[in-house]
């Protein structure tokens, strides 16, 4: 009896249901979850919020994949790849939810109506339509800077998703339950590297300190809510980013101090720039890498 492998599933889409991003033949982690938009929730707001969280995961996953074949050791290459896959999985679920409830700023160039919503949102939006923060789109820098960025990003995301487990939206709550376990590992992995580098050699300490100095200013836009987030907080769906600030600060301070690193000055809030579609050239370059093949062959499936 032939058992289908993951490779068969990717190559042989069932019922012409091939997907660019994720293939087919995988169990649906949201099977049985009520997808009805809760009473009192504006669907477009819910879609926009899912887009924010999904774009953060998608863009950071792409940044991490840039380390494949470049990581300092083989085990780390596997670990980074697995973390990127976790984030890609979160992005898939969140973008699919965004597409299913309707989002403002839908793709300007949909090559075919048969393209799944999550693929259209991942591959056929321009940079100003993305709602990720500057933290995840910033260039990697060296390995130490990447681990500092992963520490910050996973700490913030874990704090948010831990609270989203009580969201009134059943889909967001289910995604959060799954994501918390993944993000706990991501944060632990990054923290271990920061400790190893900070309290290691003189050179590793210097690089870790430089990494913290480069990453810390990117915290400035993380803790101010958008209008969409405020409305969803009021109806019990979203998390106020300001509510996680103290927890994030405590975790990051503890890790850096144990790594014998100086904790950079906490930046003043600048407002949610990335959430409003304000991005630098770095994101456009990243998306060119991410989206190029899909845009060149928009009707293809695999």
TrEMBL record:
Gene Ontology biological process terms from the UniProt entry: phenylacetate catabolic process
Gene3D superfamilies: 1.20.1260.10
Keywords tagged on the record: Oxidoreductase
EC main group: oxidoreductase
Leader peptide range in chain numbering: none
GO cellular component: cytosol
UniProt key word Oxidoreductase: yes
Pfam families reported in the protein's UniProt record: PaaA_PaaC
Entry protein name: Ring-1,2-phenylacetyl-CoA epoxidase subunit PaaC
Organism: Petropleomorpha daqingensis
